[in-house]
Amino acid sequence: MDSNLSSQKRRTLAPQREVGRQRVAELLEAAAEVIQERGFEATTMAEIALRADARIGSLYRFFPSKDAVADALMDRYATVLAAAYDAVRDQAGSATPEQLADILIELLVQLHPQARAVTALLDSRTDWTQIRLRFRAQALAGVRAALKANAPGLAEAEADDIAAVVLNNMKTMVGMMRKDAPTTPGAPDQLRLMNRLYLGAKLTPARP
After folding, report:
1. Which PROSITE patterns does the annotation name (predicted)?
2. Counting beta carbons within 10 angstroms of the beta carbon of residue 157, is it exposed (0 to 12), middle (13 to 18) or buried (19 or more)?
């Protein structure tokens, strides 16, 4: 049997012991770094193992192929994203709209390092369009839940619209940080102010 075909059929190994889970986390961190730098197609399993200071056999023990590594990275990001938005929703109830604006901006800034690897993965494969849409829907739902927790009286349709605006502003902030979007030294602070004023105006009338 072809060894490559055999490795593709093997399932990703889910470690049961803490030491194994730590090893998997280190391998995925290394994979994310290499993929960010080189892109998914150019990344090799050997490079991932080298970056993790692990034997190549250890990498293949947990991940039978590079696609398995990619799947694990996307699953991990979905889990991290869900936990992060749950935490924001929990804070939103006791925050002012202006504070919530800052919390949401900081969230995407914090998630940015992990998001870069996922973006590189999604950009490399046209057949991952549905996964891209899933992440977008997850982010929109997370922002929307935070808005409703802060302003329970917000109309459903308006909550959807505001969530889309806020998410785009969050992405613009990351673009400014990466110098991918037009920016000046003071522009990020102006964007933060704009978000505070916007959410203050939209959410305050719908708060108890």
Report:
1. HTH_TETR_2
2. exposed
